[in-house]
Amino acid sequence: DELIEEFATNSKLVKYIDIPVQHISDKILKRMNRKGNGALIRDVLSKLRTRVPGISIRSTAIVGFPGETEEDFNELCEFVKEAKFEHFGAFTYSREENTAAYNFENQIDEDVKQERYDIIMKTQLAATEAYLNSKIGKELTVLCEGYDPVSESHYGRSADNAPEIDGKVFFMSSQKLNEGDF
């Protein structure tokens, strides 16, 4: 709550936060040894959206964790739809030696993991499109990172874009801009 209040009141903070939820199923979160549960994740997201209007939220999830049922996966997909993350990425579970999950029963087949990855990324697509479409024609403060001669436009990032993760903002300027200009 203190951090959310800081985001809401501190003008020096960028209204962007990365919350790697990993999953929403209580069963899977427990198997992953994550603190909290699905209700806590939903509560934090709700507080952020209510208290910090315009906040940009990035998250990630893991699909295909050992023991993830179709029901668990469907719950995750429904959560991604309701959360409407501005930025979202998913990973397939990767079995690594010397981890507790390496020896878990009910390992998920690689084809199933890939299918789930494809489905969850397609599920996020509507929220991503809505978010990006909401920016078209808007005036944003953008940190100029360079000029692209192919598109004949400058590129950079706004407060909604983490470096090297969230893509770039392409824009035109009647002024000569240098890297580092806003």
Q: Main attributes?
A:
alpha/beta, three-stranded parallel β-sheet, three-stranded antiparallel β-sheet, 5 helices
Can you walk me through this structure?
The protein has five helices and six strands. With 182 residues, the chain is of the alpha/beta class. The strands form two sheets. It has a three-stranded parallel β-sheet, with helices on one face. Strands 4-5-6 form a three-stranded antiparallel β-sheet, with no helix packed on it. Helix 4 (70-83) links the parallel strand 2 and strand 3 (87-92). Helix 4 runs parallel beside helix 5 (110-135). The radius of gyration is 19 Å and the shape is globular.
Euclidean distance between termini CA atoms: 32 Å
Placed side by side, the strands forming the largest sheet appear as 1-2-3
As a percent range, the share of helical residues equals 25-40%
- Overall mean pLDDT stands at 94
Tell me how many strands there are: 6
Principal-axes geometry comes out as: globular
> Can you summarize the main beta sheet?
3 strands, parallel
**Helix count from the secondary structure assignment:** 5
Taken as a percent bin, the fraction of beta residues is: 15-25%
User: What is the string of helix and strand elements?
Assistant: HEHHEHEHEEE
Name the poorly predicted regions.
Answer: none
Q: Determine the structural class based on helices, strands and strand pairing.
A: alpha/beta
Radius of gyration: 19 Å
